[in-house]
Amino acid sequence: MKSKVVLIPCSSYEDETLYRCLKQGLELLGGLESLIKKNEKVLFKPNLVRSAKRERAVVTDPAVMENVFRIFREQGYEHLACGDSCGIGSAGKAMKECHMDAALEKYGVELKEFQDEQRVETLRGRTLTLAKDVLEADALVSVCKMKTHALERVTGAVKNQYGCICGMHKAMGHTQYPNADIFARMLADLNLTVKPRLYIMDGITAMEGNGPTSGDPVPMNVLLFSEDPVALDTVFCHLIYLDPELVPTNVHGEKMGLGTWKSSQIDVVTPEGTFTPEQIGERYGNREFHVDRKKVKGKTIMDTFRVFGIFRKKPYIVKDQCRKCGICVSACPVEGKAIRFKNGRTNPPVYDYKKCIRCFCCQEMCPHRAIKVK
């Protein structure tokens, strides 16, 4: 059977419009009851990477979460909770910053901070430290944000589950999985372990450029739904004219049995009918979307270049934008720090690129958009 991805055009976060679009998308996917039983404990996992104003398109929009809560409540689901493990700060603080906390209170959704942890061995023998809240839920619903990503090119349905790993272990994970391919294999394994029942992507306003936190908001005017996170991310790729085979989470996700990125194996269902991912790109896509589309060089050549430090992506600080807050230093997971201040905080921090593992935690956590990747 082909993987089904539902695409609903939606250009507004206005409540009633969004409610109708979300409800229509879930119905075209087969209905909630085909995915989750009403007596199950449901845990929603938005993208709450760090505190940010909703207009920055850093986090899953609170209006999307509120209307998802509303639909579940109206359809008789009683046990609802929502949480995340943020890169900086708490889930509660991140929700308050973007006003998502009001939606939790309105629909009686329990806040989960993902503080208690449990070590879990995956089917592939990897040990991950996951939030107990995730393991104790019956059904995980992943509600991600359509964004670019310095390491994996895009962050969407597959990458969203990295927030199921508890706090400090997320940072340590970047030292254990120090390149895009190794990190992608871990993410696929993680998804196979926590097994979300449903993936929803907020692509009404997406983020392009210096994502996942310092890019620019851009209207994409779509909501995506699927049980297959690789297929969903593949449709995202076609919408922005990015070859899905260039995204490591797609390639390794398929190899590991998480889903498919092959267009011939994906049906995109819309209110107007069923289309291929390529046709969806033509109908709803944005050719000007700012994302890294550069082809990867041959493995042997690139391995040689890496030995000498040639042609490797690296983070750098835009000095005029740096406020010397030190968050980038705190976020660096490398022992001894690959970025730190010299002679106090009179100047921006400096990199030791011999230590830098190119995890881009510094770039991701910078609240002032002062770190870019070249």
SSE inventory with pairings:
Layout: E1 3-9, H1 15-29, E2 42-46, H2 62-74, E3 80-83, H3 91-98, H4 101-107, E4 110-112, E5 117-121, E6 127-131, H5 132-136, E7 139-149, E8 153-155, H6 167-176, H7 180-194, E9 198-208, E10 216-226, H8 229-239, H9 248-255, E11 266-270, E12 273-275, H10 277-284, H11 299-307, E13 315-317, H12 327-331, E14 339-340, E15 350-351, H13 361-365, E16 371-373
Parallel strand pairs: 1-11, 2-3, 2-7, 3-4, 7-9
Antiparallel strand pairs: 1-10, 5-6, 7-8, 9-10, 11-12, 13-16, 14-15
Helix pairs in contact: 1-2, 2-4, 7-9, 8-9, 8-10
How many domains is the backbone divided into?
2
CATH fold description of the largest domain = Rossmann fold
Helix/strand-derived category reads alpha/beta
Low-confidence stretches: none
Q: In percent, how helical is the residue content?
A: 25-40%
CATH architecture classification name of the largest domain: 3-Layer(aba) Sandwich
Proportion of residues in extended strands: 15-25%
Individual helix count: 13
